[in-house]
């Protein structure tokens, strides 16, 4: 980066405040590529509570059917028999493609990982896992299941956060991991076609060799499947720059409940011939079909990257800074993240790291730029920083000077989740709110918890802090309520208050995590009855027997 | 632009070749903002033939029902009565909201523009035009129509190219022009909410005052409605940069056939709560509901713009140039257009203008960059041009030095349609093909026409030229067959050959124009029976009586 050579007086002052490489190397926080391992049993806590803390290694999570006693097994679904298993064994041929817990008693340990989500918050009772290797196999599996009323759960990398990728009862798991071929990549157009079971990071590394990137990046990239990403309409870190999967996915191949293969594996950017049906599958969480292949438009990789972090006195100023960043950094802006002081104080408390800025501020923003020319990008970023400091929008800031410092600054944003997990249980809400009121939710929630006498520094108060952070560029807020212990009063103060607050602002109760089991009941806070009714029509049209991922979504 | 001050030796040579401002002012071709007026009667030519040439001002086009005698009026639909008209008059109140040709005989001239498309290629027989001003009015109109089996045609700016926005028989036209309010714009997030009848250019000019642009630009911007843009999933000039409407539209409000108002007017970038139903309405051409409001993500306006045009020896090199442009210009690349020499020769022949480059080449590419810093952009573009010339990818090129030259260079691309229209009738195909084979269609078609003895420079040959040009960045080709006169042999040589050729490459027979009446029958060339079957299910689910835009689309 050419930043060093071109510093202006304002920026020279900035540099005095920058974190040293030494500090950066010892932050102990890394840009997390995989979700932190769950450390807690959910058996003792209520279902909306995000459990944390150390957990006995061999302990079993509570069954989802126990956590949600109001969900009953649908009696229309058949019970698995030896004949069913024999059919699937013949169909899939190899032993490794069928994990059989129906006729064998020694497979429980093998099947367990397919029954449990990575947070160990949801746990199903499936006794049969099928691992097809071709679309044809998926088709034959589903046709048989549909004919025999056997419920199924499509499963990708099983990195979801709402219990969507594991069974509730004895649904058959159809795990897509063996469909992991990259089918083709066109280096001129940037169009990639790959099977659903490809791991995001593997695909991204493949694209890197050709100078491209996958237009999606998220913490779970080392485990999640691109089929799962599309099925859950994953958002992540690159959305601000490259837009949502609804814009970048060009086509899909999917298998319907009755085994019909829907070949919409279009590789074209423009195709106005009829309803864009693939869009329904994007974010459907496997409820209307199983995505088997994906065609997607990949952007060129940007060779230059810069990261800056700055402090602001108010949320009003954070909005001004965002507006200026969009205007001045425009085409090179690739992330604009917001952190409140509460969240940064928790990171500091847990890591003991020196803060990047000398003083503390009510808000911090992290800006990332990605472009094709490092000198140009540095120049733009410096001009922007000078401008916002001169205008008094930004109180103080620092610009990363190398890759280590870039990681270190990102750690103050991405380390929040981990820091919270060290401190006790957390109520987590992933919401979208119109930008103007984005932070108001945190303030109103904090005031409400405080008024109820539940918030304080001393151990007698169950709530340690109410903090907010998130993808400001996408109006996506993570509201986190950090607690010292479970206290029923806290949940009563929070819910349905938070959902009602969001509904009043026409926000979304699930910005990027989806519905799954967790938010199935709350869809009404973000969608009106007309919309939900139409969605139910769609579900019935595509899956009349309801065998696909039951008990979830709608 | 700083281009002038920073020219390298290679570029100094380039500048010698640049068109002079004088030449530019006299090209006679302008960047067309509105579609050229139609000049021909379609009564004497077959339906797939794009008619051109002067037409008597008061002449009447041929009725669509005559051009397509195999389309019969659906007898399930009721005939309009005085009682129906009286009901609508009471409902909409003002006289100007109801153009009544049922009980009055003096309204034929007023109604005619609503019956005829702008090319005067399609003409319906509607006798009632309704012009609602609110969603509530649209709802009440549709409920009544659905209850009384009255077919309707939703109509925006009526600038479509496939006959989708005018009636075929006596369908009631619901014209949206009076719903033209901009409802709100958030200057921080860039989210615009506006009524469907807003004219694209008006909205774009409104956004300009706030430093934003509408993420869509097209020739018909002075007339087309944003509701129509969304309903037809318009592509246009900015798609390469800002992606399709499937990615930028955040929400819609629509009215279903039975009058149900679907309020999905989400203003959030992220909302993973159920099926993304709005996507079905994007590109549905008014067949499942009438879009009444749109919420859309608008990007910041780029202050700097550069345009270059260069000559290449082969399509292979055009692909290489595109690849290099994506890599080196990356985030500032806003257009990459392809023109073959045949198309440029026609422009030269009609306008008599001096070509921008001294020599002729088999292919020409036009590159546009849009960015936030003029100096940076010029530097990138110059470095790119040096690089592609040094590598021998590009044979010669010119860089526009001012706004006049920018317009002049664009005229060589955008003037093709107008040039063709001066020379006789044209068979026009708007198709998507995987990039590698994009131009092969032109070569194969030309060879086929030639082999049939139909192509030649002398008047005895009905075909003057087979040319190709288009949005190379989007793999969207316009194949044009320029003829001297109508000759049945030409149509037989072209069809179904072109559609079959496209189908074999899994291309799209309609990249951006949609299906309408014109391509309803050909959807099978781009969509398999499974997809078409699912689409028909969707249509039935949303519009069981089939009153919305009948005889079209599927």
TrEMBL record, chains A, B:
Keywords: FAD, Flavoprotein, Metal-binding, Mitochondrion, Oxidoreductase, Transit peptide, Zinc. The keyword GTP-binding does not apply. InterPro entries: FAD-bd_oxidored_4_C (IPR004113), FAD-bd_PCMH (IPR016166), FAD-bd_PCMH-like_sf (IPR036318), FAD-bd_PCMH_sub1 (IPR016167), FAD-bd_PCMH_sub2 (IPR016169), FAD-linked_Oxase-like_C (IPR016164), FAD-oxidored/transferase_4 (IPR051264), Oxid_FAD_bind_N (IPR006094). GO terms for cellular component: mitochondrion. Residues 122-301 form the FAD-binding PCMH-type domain. It holds the Pfam family FAD-oxidase_C. Its EC number is 1.1.99.39. Its cofactor is FAD. It is found in: Mitochondrion. It catalyses: (R)-lactate + 2 Fe(III)-[cytochrome c] = 2 Fe(II)-[cytochrome c] + pyruvate + 2 H(+); (R)-malate + A = oxaloacetate + AH2. The keyword Metal-binding applies. One of its GO terms (molecular function) is metal ion binding. Transmembrane segments: none annotated. GO terms for biological process: malate metabolic process. Catalyzes the oxidation of D-2-hydroxyglutarate (D-2-HG) to alpha-ketoglutarate. Also catalyzes the oxidation of other D-2-hydroxyacids, such as D-malate (D-MAL) and D-lactate (D-LAC). Exhibits high activities towards D-2-HG and D-MAL but a very weak activity towards D-LAC. Belongs to the FAD-binding oxidoreductase/transferase type 4 family. This is D-2-hydroxyglutarate dehydrogenase, mitochondrial. It comes from Dichotomopilus funicola.
């Amino acid at each position: 980066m050419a930043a060093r050579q071109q510093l202006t007086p304002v920026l020279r002052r900035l540099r005095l405040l920058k974190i040293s490489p030494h500090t950066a190397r010892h932050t102990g926080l890394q840009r997390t590529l995989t979700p932190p391992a769950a450390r807690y049993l959910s058996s003792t806590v209520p279902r909306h509570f995000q459990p944390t803390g150390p957990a006995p290694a061999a302990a079993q999570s509570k069954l989802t059917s126990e956590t949600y006693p109001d969900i009953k097994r649908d009696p229309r679904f058949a019970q698995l028999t030896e004949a069913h298993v024999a059919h699937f064994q013949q169909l899939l041929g190899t032993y490794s493609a069928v994990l059989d817990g129906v006729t064998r008693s020694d497979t429980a340990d093998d099947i367990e990982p397919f029954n449990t989500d990575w947070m160990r918050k949801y746990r199903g009772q499936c006794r049969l896992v099928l691992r097809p290797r071709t679309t044809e196999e998926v088709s034959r599996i589903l046709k048989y299941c549909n004919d025999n009323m056997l419920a199924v759960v499509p499963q990708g990398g099983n990195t979801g956060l709402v219990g969507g990728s594991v069974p509730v009862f004895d649904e058959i798991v159809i795990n897509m991991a063996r469909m992991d071929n990259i089918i083709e990549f066109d280096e001129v157009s940037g169009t990639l076609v790959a099977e659903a079971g490809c791991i995001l990071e593997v695909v991204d590394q493949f694209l890197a060799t050709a100078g491209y990137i996958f237009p999606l990046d998220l913490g779970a990239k080392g485990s999640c499947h691109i089929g799962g990403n599309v099925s859950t309409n994953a958002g992540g870190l690159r959305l601000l720059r490259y837009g949502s999967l609804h814009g970048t996915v060009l086509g899909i191949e999917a298998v319907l409940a009755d085994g019909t293969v829907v070949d919409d594996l279009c590789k074209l950017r423009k195709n106005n011939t009829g309803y864009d049906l693939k869009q329904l599958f994007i974010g459907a969480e496997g409820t209307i079909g199983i995505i088997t292949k994906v065609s997607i438009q990949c952007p060129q990789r940007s060779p230059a990257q810069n990261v800056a972090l700055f402090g602001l006195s108010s949320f009003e100023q954070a909005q001004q800074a965002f507006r200026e960043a969009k205007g001045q950094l425009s085409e090179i802006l690739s992330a604009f993240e917001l952190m409140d002081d509460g969240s940064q104080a928790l990171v500091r408390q847990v890591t003991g790291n020196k803060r990047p800025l000398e003083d503390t501020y009510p808000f911090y923003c992290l800006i990332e730029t990605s472009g094709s020319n490092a000198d140009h990008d540095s120049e733009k970023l410096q001009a922007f920083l000078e401008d916002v400091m001169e205008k008094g929008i930004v109180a103080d800031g620092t610009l990363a000077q190398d890759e280590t410092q870039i990681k270190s600054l990102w750690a103050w944003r991405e380390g929040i989740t981990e820091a919270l997990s060290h401190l006790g249980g957390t109520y987590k809400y992933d919401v979208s709110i119109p930008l103007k009121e984005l932070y108001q939710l945190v303030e109103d929630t904090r005031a409400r918890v405080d008024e109820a006498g539940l918030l304080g520094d001393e151990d007698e108060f169950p709530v340690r802090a109410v903090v907010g952070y998130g993808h400001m560029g996408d109006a996506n807020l993570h509201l986190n309520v950090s607690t010292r212990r479970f206290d029923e009063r806290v949940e009563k103060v929070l819910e349905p208050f938070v959902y009602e607050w969001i509904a009043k602002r026409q926000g979304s109760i699930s910005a990027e995590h989806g519905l799954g089991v967790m938010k199935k009941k709350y869809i009404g806070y973000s969608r009106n009855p007309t919309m939900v009714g139409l969605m139910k029509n769609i579900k019935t049209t595509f899956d009349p027997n309801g065998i696909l991922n039951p008990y979830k979504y709608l």
